[in-house]
């Protein structure tokens, strides 16, 4: 099974998580990059949150891989305003997930991400993907060590889901 870990990270926290997922799954890591660099500070939270809440996508650079080269994919990144950030929305809108086994692992700084996971899962499935495992965690509630433990647990759950689809144990 060839797995791609596709992520967006603005400040580096999600990059660490994606790296750990890649390590655990022995997958290749690929970063989603926005074309226009975001301004930091209040403007980021105001404009980024607004875009996320209204499902607006950002313009992203072309990816450095072909999805057809992979059997499965983990999509990892932050929630802004309680919903997937604009870069994740853009990647999902541009990608044909037909026949791919997809996992979603999101970070939040507050609140319950169940609605965001459902919206993202639905979009991926509308684009032909099979969402196997969707999870999130609150970055303010977990220490760095606990964050890595949660990431490791997620990777194991994803691997088991893949095996169950194949009918192996």
Helices and strands in order:
Blueprint: E1 3-7, H1 13-25, E2 28-31, H2 42-53, E3 72-80, E4 83-84, H3 86-94, E5 101-108, H4 114-126, E6 130-138, H5 144-166
Parallel strand pairs: 1-2, 1-3, 3-5, 5-6
Antiparallel strand pairs: 3-4
Structure, described:
The chain is of the alpha/beta class and 169 residues long. It has a single domain, classed as Flavodoxin domain (Rossmann fold). The chain has five helices and six strands, in the order E-H-E-H-E-E-H-E-H-E-H. Strands 1, 2, 3, 4, 5 and 6 form a six-stranded mixed beta sheet that branches. Helix 1 crosses helix 5. It is globular. The two termini are 15 Å apart.
Tell me the radius of gyration. 15 Å
Largest sheet: 6 strands, mixed
- Beta-strand content estimate: 15-25%
CATH topology: Rossmann fold
Question: What is the gist of this entry?
Answer:
Helices cover 41% and strands 22% of the residues. The chain is an alpha/beta fold. It has one domain: Rossmann fold (3-Layer(aba) Sandwich).
Feature tags:
single chain, alpha/beta, Rossmann fold, six-stranded mixed β-sheet, 5 helices, globular
């Amino acid at each position: 099974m060839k797995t791609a870990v596709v992520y967006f990270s603005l400040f580096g926290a999600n990059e660490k998580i994606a790296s750990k997922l890649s390590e655990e799954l022995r997958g290749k890591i690929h970063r989603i990059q926005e074309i226009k660099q975001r301004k930091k500070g209040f403007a980021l939270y105001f404009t980024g949150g607004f875009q996320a809440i209204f499902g607006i996508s950002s313009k992203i650079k072309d990816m450095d891989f072909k999805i057809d080269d992979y059997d499965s994919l983990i999509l990892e990144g932050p929630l802004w305003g309680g919903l997937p950030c604009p870069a994740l929305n853009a990647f999902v809108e541009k990608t044909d997930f037909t026949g791919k086994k997809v996992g979603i692992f999101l970070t939040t700084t507050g609140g319950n991400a169940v609605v965001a996971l459902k919206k993202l899962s639905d979009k991926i499935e509308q684009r032909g993907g099979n969402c196997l495992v969707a999870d999130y965690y609150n970055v303010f509630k977990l220490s760095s060590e606990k964050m890595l433990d949660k990431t490791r647990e997620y990777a194991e759950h994803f691997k088991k889901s893949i095996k169950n689809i194949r009918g192996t144990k």
